[in-house]
Amino acid sequence: MRKPAKRVFLAALCSVCQALQGGMLFPTESPSREVKDASGLWSFRADLSPERSRGFEQQWYRKPLAETGPVIDMPVPSSFNDITQDAKIRDFIGWVWYEKDVWVPARWIQDRGTRIVLRVGSAHYYSVLWVNGVKVAEHVGGHLPFEADISGVLRQTSGSACRITIAVNNTLTLETLPPGTIQYMNDRSRYPAGYFVQNTNFDFFNYAGIHRSVLVYTTPKAHIDDITVETTFSDNIGLVSFNVSVLGSSKPAVKVTLSAQDGRCVASADGSRGVLKVTDVNLWWPYLMHENPAYLYSMEVQATAEDGQTDVYTLAVGIRTVKVTSTQFLINNKPFYFHGVNKHEDADIRGKGFDWPLVVKDFNLMKWMGVNSFRPSHYPYAEEILQMADRHGIVIIDECPGVGIRDIRSFGNVSLAHHLTVMEELVRRDKNHPSVVMWSVANEPASEMPPAGFYFKELVSHTKSLDSSRPVTYITASNYARDLGAPYVDVICVNSYLSWYHDPGHTELISLQLNTQFDDWYGKYQKPIIQSEYGADAVPGLHSDPPMMFTEEYQTTVLQNYHNVFDQKRKEFVIGELIWNFADFMTTQTITRVVGNKKGIFTRQRQPKSGAFLLRERYWRIANETGVLPTWARYPCL
Ligand SMILES: Cc1cc(=O)oc2cc(O[C@@H]3O[C@H](C(=O)O)[C@@H](O)[C@H](O)[C@H]3O)ccc12
């Protein structure tokens, strides 16, 4: 591989300073809005030039990509890495170029009261977006949406023909999230001139490309830009406070109507801010905690501008509260115990590309197992996944891509400013999901390093200023006595790999060491604790008795030893356990990974290992003990 263009790094630095403006509502159809999906086959070209800069030098965005050189078919959404037979594409670092022609209906162009927006669900990592050769947006960060108003460009260029060009760069630097470094290999006897590698401090494969849908959608010119809801209740009265921002009209008339699932209007109000009162409220409850979980109201917002045009947007609203005490996590004032999983957006061929069959299969598997919660580790997942969690009552700890912050240079001001911006983007996108009960600002940072105290103090307090209704945490693997960020979090989330990375093979030590881990953390902080990762690799089909590392028996033995301690400590202050990992996933190639990380309790193809049956039995038992189950769910094994 060759040296990437300097612009890779410079461009990433410039945009971190921009303040976040406007909302990021999920595009939906309504009487005033249309959505056109540009998913499908795109033209694709990796810039294989030594400096990765030919595309910019030759302005590939100015004409059809096929006229600049050879292109191949590339599905969107999908990672590009595993689509071809070419290892150069799989391991490519630098700029790749995507292009697709779409037609927008002529009436969208002709009606000057129509606003046309181009939205990319996510593209990893750094993107530049052109329409008909005109630059319309740039975005830093691989897991959150970005969009551009393209009405003007379309009206000034070729009308309803819309050539979308997206250049995406997957290079990670000390200031990106997640961070990484480019290492140049200068020993000419071993590496050719310009040879470099991308180093990271996380193990999942750095899949890249356009990972989520590209949508073209409309709103009226005067449109609902953002909606924020916060909910609470008292006795049988639910309260929904709302705040609607409208752009393009100085005095819009706003009407808000809340309907129950049977379509009955249960509350309404006029004005862009207010509180809706819902009598005989149906609260949003997690799966397996209530006989009628995941109840969602439908909130219709209408904004009518001075010229009489009305924009309509409908939002699903779950009414629930979240509170943390020194020993408990309360949802609707009742203790909630997280029995769940950590996941990855990861599958054969498509990599991190959004895929409905995979999403539905994963939710079916989670519900089969009695999972009531998951952490979308280690980055924000597709919005459709959060919508599924809302609809099925699966509780989410929403994590930003602050994974692998292990280099002291990644605790500087540029990194912090970017991290704050990413939290703004995350909260802006996910604030209205009832399933999201806590924000996680990072995973396993070097939180014992001197700058970590200030860094996490700022990060946690900024996140709380964005959303005061949810607790904030980060996931630590540091020693309890040296962790400098823990004073600022609401819940202590600890990862440990006893008898795996430490004392490998010695499962008999888990009980002693895990008891010590919990008592140390609780003794110092008196905050509730989640075991946010634990587990062991199991190569499916590998067996041994007595258990040996990498066999299914070893994985289940590790789990059982952890569970014995959890069962004691959940009577005190342990409020959750999240297995690492739901499924095997692809990693960078190293000597510790056998074609990926095998700590899944399911294979990458979603077939169960022994551990899945063990956890299923356990999670349903816990749910039977602690929850109020629907009749059908009381005896899941029959
Ligand atoms: C070398 C090492 C030691 C250790 O104690 O923990 C630890 C954790 C690591 O990463 C976390 O664990 C998972 C895993 O290794 O399977 C990762 O997949 C996960 O993303 C991490 O949060 C890595 C290395 C070590």
Any descriptors?
638 residues, alpha+beta, Jelly Rolls, Immunoglobulin-like, TIM Barrel, 3 domains, 8-stranded parallel β-barrel, 6-stranded antiparallel β-sheet, globular, disordered N terminus, binds the ligand Cc1cc(=O)oc2cc(O[C@@H]3O[C@H](C(=O)O)[C@@H](O)[C@H](O)[C@H]3O)ccc12, lysosome, Beta-glucuronidase
Q: Which percent range fits the helix content?
A: 10-25%
The CATH class of the largest domain: Alpha Beta
| Backbone shape | globular
The total count of helices amounts to 12
Signal peptide: 1-19
Domain Glycoside hydrolase family 2 immunoglobulin-like beta-sandwich: 222-320
Enzyme class: hydrolase
EC number: 3.2.1.31
Task: Explain what you see.
It is a single chain. The protein has three domains: 34-220, Galactose-binding domain-like (Jelly Rolls), CATH 2.60.120.260; 223-320, Sandwich (Immunoglobulin-like); 323-626, Alpha-Beta Barrel (TIM Barrel), CATH 3.20.20.80. It has 638 residues and is an alpha+beta fold. The protein has an eight-stranded parallel barrel with strand order 25-26-27-28-29-30-31-32, surrounded by four helices. A six-stranded antiparallel sheet has the order 3-2-4-10-7-8, with no helix packed on it. Strands 1-14-5-9 form a four-stranded antiparallel sheet. Strand 20 (297-304) and strand 21 (310-317) form a beta hairpin. Helix 10 (510-525) packs parallel to helix 11 (552-569). The longest helix has 18 residues, at 413-430. The chain is globular and about 70 Å long. Helix content is 21%, strand content 29%. Residues 202-203, 378, 443-444, 477, 495, 497, 501, 533, 580, 597, 599 line the site of the ligand Cc1cc(=O)oc2cc(O[C@@H]3O[C@H](C(=O)O)[C@@H](O)[C@H](O)[C@H]3O)ccc12. It is found in: Lysosome.
